[in-house]
């Protein structure tokens, strides 16, 4: 259910105080039952220093059964209880500084649709404690700087729940009466309660092992729903690759004898790094080539790596308080991005990171919920698992890596672990370790942790013909907001490449450190003005104001060594036409653009990279670069530009499509298979605009989905074809959707794709389609993946109808959010994102969106999750 109404006071970073008590050991006995699970918690507690504070434990939605101090029952006049806190006044506590507290509580997992604390996913029990879910399991000091060793005895029916899992090592097990059994687990590493986990159920188990660099054998176990064993192989290989990579890159070994992963269908987020027992959204575990796309495979590997890497960056060294979340998340995202870049194409991986950042994080940082990567004020912590904390947080670590270099970065990591292993620390602690190990002054760099908003860098160039001196002047400013009146100049690494006009001179690469409001650099030795390729590898999360003409952009596309810059110049060129078309639908488009596209298509490079070059900026990427966005005009501009390219380059698109198609059967590396499909499907997306090529869509759909040779079936190709049908509402669309549903109706994760496809249909009957989908027997708002695949996909991937002039798209979203507010506030709060960013749109749309926000704000039982966002959006 929604958060309690009594707890509506925000918390501030500035108010942090160490706890008055620590908990050294936790002994849990959990007797599982669908509607009434019993939790007995025995805590050994120690008062810190000689204060006279009361002991205040967090607890929500718990039924207190009994309470005893040093084995003496407490009567109800010896403690106070409200909806969120159990208070034991100093007068009820013993004089000695150490004491034990025994608490028995009851909870109802079946009714727990918020999926925080102990809940049921299908037939299995499982838990989610980060950030503050443990307080829904038992009364506790639910804060990350309270670290204890946990021993957990799980009791449940033996036939229904043959596997009983928790953190650490199995130390005991046995049978009990009434067909019950128990397993006891002990985790030797002290940890905050947010890393606690429990799972009970019947699963298929994939087993393997890993031998660490120092020769210890670690058992690897992946638990999946019965019948899915073959789909866990890719996750297992990904885990082994991650373990090896962390040893080789950072010298970090795994520390327990067992590492377990459980895949569940009901989960609010991607996955959770509980010590020794990760719980995953099944979407980030299960894959085979028939039912998963290439990007599913990529994402599974990345999320497995992310959670594994948390064992050091998050678990062994954890956060002092939740304001420090980016300490573990930004760093761990950086680590998983580096891993992915090494496992695949580093150029394409980087481009995809940047696309996500620019399309989503920039919008968040410009909206009402903008916050520094280390937030300063929080009402509902779940609202701060954001693109800013994760993705911008990773960019901040990457800048540090760029500024000090790979070797000193490694020295800094070593020092960080040497200093802080087993502790709960701050972002400042991390930066100080990096500074001490590298000798670099990072005091100004720390501002990245306290300032919000995307900095804007203005670029000015001049060239003096007599002296051949090229001068580059950069100025920076961060946005001023109500919460941020006086932003300071940041320390920003700017990597550039100067491309000489004459071919004899190699490009000159430089790392500039911009740390003032305005700075100039001079370069000599050029004959004629060089062309500037700015922000190589996207060396900083900033926006550029830099008027580069088409000739310069084309030069960069051809001659820059840095692949990111080559791609980015192409995107900038495309974006300039999108902007012009959004303003004037008849804006003429030049032949040179077609020539540039043809050149890309026929170049010999990595096809996955070419696919990225050919892809237009997404609606969101384009919107984040514009003001007062007219969404319909923008969506029409994107369509118009695609049509122009499809028309003008049809021969070359078809030739590339066919070349990729032919090589399908002769892939020499897994990457070339992925790359071929990526390019082929970008070509298909263009070709499907033109009626004469639409038969290709049908052909590809059938080949990939309905093939006599099942080995030939492929979800990437199948979905790509369907997406074309949905986007252009092709004649075969409805038949294909029915066929796909019939084929996959028993496969949950594929049905999520089907719902998302339906929600993306570009057709005037979309709202009646959405109503039919809501009533579909497989639709349920209680399953977060399903809710996101219908509601999220409509709001994010169908801009033409989400933003339609009648406001029906906005109404649809707000109506579903109102229902989700009662069921699962975390999911409701994530899905509201496109509405709270209303200020980036033109006034007529703002008005319609705002009206929905006002309606939502008036809901009875409004959760803190939504309240925090609505208040921010409407007071902005
Ligand atoms: N720590 C998790 C991660 O990075 C995030 C997470 C998983 C989470 N489940 C959650 C955060 C539920 C809040 C609520 O990868
Ligand atoms: Zn994480």
TrEMBL record:
<keyword id="KW-0482">Metalloprotease</keyword>
<dbReference type="InterPro" id="IPR035414">
    <property type="entry name" value="Peptidase_M1_pepN_Ig-like"/>
</dbReference>
<dbReference type="GO" id="GO:0008270">
    <property type="term" value="F:zinc ion binding"/>
</dbReference>
<dbReference type="InterPro" id="IPR038438">
    <property type="entry name" value="PepN_Ig-like_sf"/>
</dbReference>
<dbReference type="GO" id="GO:0008237">
    <property type="term" value="F:metallopeptidase activity"/>
</dbReference>
<dbReference type="InterPro" id="IPR037144">
    <property type="entry name" value="Peptidase_M1_pepN_C_sf"/>
</dbReference>
<keyword id="KW-0479">Metal-binding</keyword>
<comment type="similarity">
    <text>Belongs to the peptidase M1 family.</text>
</comment>
<dbReference type="InterPro" id="IPR014782">
    <property type="entry name" value="Peptidase_M1_dom"/>
</dbReference>
<keyword id="KW-0031">Aminopeptidase</keyword>
<dbReference type="Pfam" id="PF17900">
    <property type="entry name" value="Peptidase_M1_N"/>
</dbReference>
<feature type="domain" description="Peptidase M1 membrane alanine aminopeptidase">
    <location>
        <begin position="236"/>
        <end position="445"/>
    </location>
</feature>
<dbReference type="InterPro" id="IPR024601">
    <property type="entry name" value="Peptidase_M1_pepN_C"/>
</dbReference>
<dbReference type="Pfam" id="PF17432">
    <property type="entry name" value="DUF3458_C"/>
</dbReference>
<keyword id="KW-0645">Protease</keyword>
<dbReference type="InterPro" id="IPR012779">
    <property type="entry name" value="Peptidase_M1_pepN"/>
</dbReference>
<feature type="domain" description="Aminopeptidase N-like N-terminal">
    <location>
        <begin position="26"/>
        <end position="195"/>
    </location>
</feature>
<dbReference type="InterPro" id="IPR027268">
    <property type="entry name" value="Peptidase_M4/M1_CTD_sf"/>
</dbReference>
<dbReference type="GO" id="GO:0016285">
    <property type="term" value="F:alanyl aminopeptidase activity"/>
</dbReference>
<dbReference type="InterPro" id="IPR042097">
    <property type="entry name" value="Aminopeptidase_N-like_N_sf"/>
</dbReference>
<dbReference type="InterPro" id="IPR045357">
    <property type="entry name" value="Aminopeptidase_N-like_N"/>
</dbReference>
<dbReference type="InterPro" id="IPR001930">
    <property type="entry name" value="Peptidase_M1"/>
</dbReference>
<keyword id="KW-0378">Hydrolase</keyword>
<feature type="domain" description="Peptidase M1 alanyl aminopeptidase Ig-like fold">
    <location>
        <begin position="453"/>
        <end position="545"/>
    </location>
</feature>
<dbReference type="Pfam" id="PF01433">
    <property type="entry name" value="Peptidase_M1"/>
</dbReference>
<keyword id="KW-0862">Zinc</keyword>
<dbReference type="Pfam" id="PF11940">
    <property type="entry name" value="DUF3458"/>
</dbReference>
<protein>
    <recommendedName>
        <fullName>Aminopeptidase N</fullName>
        <ecNumber>3.4.11.2</ecNumber>
    </recommendedName>
</protein>
<feature type="domain" description="Peptidase M1 alanyl aminopeptidase C-terminal">
    <location>
        <begin position="552"/>
        <end position="874"/>
    </location>
</feature>
<comment type="function">
    <text>Aminopeptidase N is involved in the degradation of intracellular peptides generated by protein breakdown during normal growth as well as in response to nutrient starvation.</text>
</comment>
<dbReference type="GO" id="GO:0006508">
    <property type="term" value="P:proteolysis"/>
</dbReference>
